Amino acid sequence: MTAIFKKIWNFSEEEQGNIKKSVIAGFFHALFNSLQFAAIYYMLVEIFSGTISYQAIFISFVILFVSLIGKILTQKISQMNQTHAGYFMAAHKRMEIGEKIKKVPMGFFSDYSLGRLTSIATTSLSLVEQWIPMLLVLVLGGTLNTLVFVAGIFIFNYKIGLIASLGVLVFFIVTSLMQKKSISNSSKIAKTQENLTKNVLSTIQGMQVIKSYNLDGENNEQLDKSIKDTSNLLLKLEKSLTPYTVIQRIVVGITIVAMIFVSVKLNIYGELVLAETIMMIMASFVIFEGLIGAGSNMAILRAAENAIDSVGFINEIHDMKEGSISTPIINYDIEFKNVSFSYDEREILKEVFCLIKEKSMTAIVGPSGSGKTTFCNLIARFWDVDSGEILIGGKNIKDYRIENLMDSISMVFQDVYLFEDTIENNIKFGNPNARKDEVIAAAKKAQCHDFIMGLQDQYQTIIGEGGTSLSGGEKQRISIARAIIKDAPIIMFDEATANIDPENEDKLKDAIESLTQDKTVIMIAHRLKTIRNADQILVLNKRRIVERGSHKTLMEHGGLYKDLMNAKYISESWKLTN
Ligand SMILES: Nc1ncnc2c1ncn2[C@@H]1O[C@H](COP(=O)(O)OP(=O)(O)OP(=O)(O)O)[C@@H](O)[C@H]1O
């Protein structure tokens, strides 16, 4: 039991002060609650002694009033501190998760499903936010409330005090057995809830595919199963705990009857006066109030403990080790020195050497799946190489601070993600401090100003999640504007072919020229024209750079490059004549 409190205490970190205040306020609430019995007792003594006076009524009224005001105030203070503690405990952890996932390699997201992270950031932390401080006050405050009453009863009569203590003790034993039962199920519940979140996410994200392939039933089967699993497990838990709650009620009932019986007997034998007997009878009904609240909440406290454990998973995430170089990079030559890289067991690059000169344009070509995107992702440290090293400006990229490295690189890929925010903010993502006129200038260079001005709210238009309300070409140009405003010295670009119609092609070409001027450019090139103009072409195939050089030399060489270009030429001319 104390282990749970310790865990919650450690978890609450900066919010410990507020939790302390909340529990102390809960304790005073218990004291003020018992004060009303003092007032009633005083009145009863006066009534039964036959000397009731206005003064006695007034004193009782004052005590009741103080009890009421005290209860309201302490409850308010306790609730305010609980809300503050709960909200900020969860908020700090959510921010910690956000910071952490910025520094993990992309492999993390394949190894640990999005469902697990989402479940932690939503379900688990919501449980922490809503329940933990409140449960602490209910459990600790409720227990204290009962202990204060039991102590009060002992003062009146130790015999009735003993009966009350015995009842409370048995109640505690039953509650701790109930807790043990709920421990065995709580980790299973967390797992099924993770599964449910994963399936809901996957259904929402893949809705377009589900609809277009009419997979409604098939996909829902999985979702239905995880919903059923979750509800079955929750029902099972509820059922398994029912006998304990029934026993708790029986213990309460027996203790109340025993206390009333003994109180009446002691009155008959003259050991208790009538006022004391009535007080004992009243006390027997309220003594368990706090404890029942505490007991039923202990099971939830266990679920909350489980939520804390699942949040603890973020401490196991190993972030990428970063270097200490934070000074601006002076030279942007990029060099691969004997680089090998695998996804799990599958080797994608093997002993790759290459030099990309500063302010040059390198085109990467190769068959689909040859590792062109991977090559770029390694430069940005989305993944770390298995062996060898990648240098920028003569220094291993691992020696730079990640922020410093990312400030130096812009990536524009085909799979553009836009946030559910205004167009202006989406562009400013490249430079949050940019002024409005800088945003407009970047949009003009990226050839997207005109279509933005045609939208109802222009730069303030909110785009749907993932940029759903824009066409592929429009999204691509916004991502170019984002990169222009970032003005990073290294640009990695996956040249779009699929999203661009002939009308937009020239606009996009101008946008790319604006973006890549005077930069070190690595282009996963698809268009013949781009490839031809590159200073250097790297041809990737079967894990290695198999050919390198200018378009002219590679065509003369007559290898894979020439085959690829011929195939490309045929397909491009086919497109034109079609
Ligand atoms: N996160 C990943 N986990 C495991 N394998 C991956 C991952 N990303 C890519 N791969 C695999 O690595 C290989 C190289 O992928 P990559 O995307 O780098 O190739 P590409 O040359 O850019 O392909 P394309 O021209 O089709 O875009 C592919 O076989 C791909 O299936």
From TrEMBL:
The chain crosses the membrane at residues 23-44, 56-74, 134-154, 160-178, 246-266, 272-292. It holds the Pfam family ABC_tran. It is a multi-pass membrane protein. InterPro entries: AAA+_ATPase, ABC1_TM_dom, ABC1_TM_sf, ABC_transporter-like_ATP-bd, ABC_transporter-like_CS, P-loop_NTPase, Type_1_exporter. One of its GO terms (cellular component) is plasma membrane. It is found in: Cell membrane. One of its GO terms (molecular function) is ABC-type transporter activity. Gene3D superfamilies: ABC transporter type 1, transmembrane domain, P-loop containing nucleotide triphosphate hydrolases. PANTHER family: ABC TRANSPORTER, ATP-BINDING TRANSMEMBRANE PROTEIN (PTHR24221:SF397), ATP-BINDING CASSETTE SUB-FAMILY B (PTHR24221). This is ABC transporter ATP-binding protein.
